[in-house]
């Protein structure tokens, strides 16, 4: 039996299948004398339904359990509980079924790892795709090594190429999961110093499932490309709408220590919040709120190399005759003010910001930064221009500022604005 090094792939999985069958038979025997008969039945049914799915890490313990079950030196009731079952805590747990169910969910991701026939053809197809004509050897170990070590002229690994391809999100994520399970590094970089995760947030094809898969392998979030941008910078400047970017953010922010990198600066001293504030193609209201909710207090006041804050950048970047762009600019400014920013009327920079603003509505908000009623009235007046009736029953769960000082009606207006803008391109909107 030939094993692919560091991958756990076998050319013949007959013994694995028979191992599963032996486990089912052993658990049937065990059920007659074990106190937790119901839980043993759950285990047996699970092995039957997910055959074969035993992970490489569990193979030794499973075989040890089989040897323990099938030997006939002592009666079954007097034998010591094997290590495999002790790890499942069957003897003490009050919720054994829940523990087993949770482990099945974790192990289910490894089904492809044990389905050698599928893995072999997956690797073979990858080789043919990477080399445009196949590979000289059809030995699994050689094919696997070629796929894992491959780099193109720009330093892209197989992971990068899969992410940048036109494969569906589901197919790409499944393939990447298999490669990462087989030992590929999740933090490989190309010549632009971009990791697979950084590349995924920039793709024109949605890569939500790919990002979820990559995050399961704890990628390093501090990595920066040649321009000093990390994954949060790239996500805020990507070609996605606000809703998609917010979904990406929510996934990545669950990573270990993720919030610490929200204040990272690129070569222009811009933070991810600055990038979001400057975005002119798509709305970024929801993303801005997520960044402010998860970042530090001084994030709102940070400036770039031109001494411009996120508030300054939002006002000066969004221009045009479209009422939707006016709405986007108004809401961005309101959000920054609600989170504690304040235009310094004595500052020449802020005076220039107000002067450069194209919209009287935004100028009014900046000149009255604590007048919540004025903010609400301005948003409602923009709704009138768009022939949209203000909604008072809209879901405000996506609006993070839940302070009791903020009136519910203003939060409704912000939430309604987010609904109107979340999937629109600002640069092509016609009123």
Keywords:
single chain, 431 residues, mainly alpha, two-stranded antiparallel ribbon, elongated, disordered N terminus
Could you characterize the architecture of this molecule?
This protein is mostly helical and 431 residues long. Among the domains are: 3-108, no CATH class; 298-431, no CATH class. The protein is built from 22 helices and two strands. It has helices spanning 14-31, 37-49, 59-70, 83-87, 96-108, 111-114, 116-131, 140-149, 158-164, 169-181, 196-200, 208-215, 231-236, 242-252, 272-278, 285-294, 310-317, 323-338, 348-356, 360-367, 372-385, 408-421, and strands at 3-4, 9-10. Helix 12 packs parallel to helix 14 (242-252). The longest helix has 18 residues, at 14-31. The radius of gyration is 28 Å and the shape is elongated. One of its GO terms (molecular function) is NF-kappaB binding. Keywords: ANK repeat, Repeat. One of its GO terms (biological process) is cellular response to tumor necrosis factor.
Describe, in short, the structure shown.
This protein is mainly alpha-helical.
**What is the residue-averaged pLDDT?**
75
How far apart the termini lie comes to 67 Å
What is the radius of gyration computed over CA atoms, rounded to a whole number of angstroms? Answer: 28 Å
Largest beta sheet: strand ordering? 1-2
Q: Fraction of residues in helices?
A: 40-55%
Major beta sheet, specifics?
2 strands, antiparallel
Which spans of ≥5 residues are poorly predicted at pLDDT below 50? Answer: 1-17, 32-36, 46-66, 68-117
**Structural class of the helices, strands and pairings?**
mainly alpha
Count of individual beta strands: 2
> If helices are DSSP runs of H or I spanning 4 or more residues, what is the number of helices?
22
Proportion in β-strands: under 5%
Shape: elongated
The ordered H/E elements are EEHHHHHHHHHHHHHHHHHHHHHH
GO biological process, one term: cellular response to tumor necrosis factor
Keywords: ANK repeat, Repeat
InterPro entries: Ankyrin_rpt, Ankyrin_rpt-contain_sf, NF-kappa-B_inhibitor
GO molecular function, one term: NF-kappaB binding
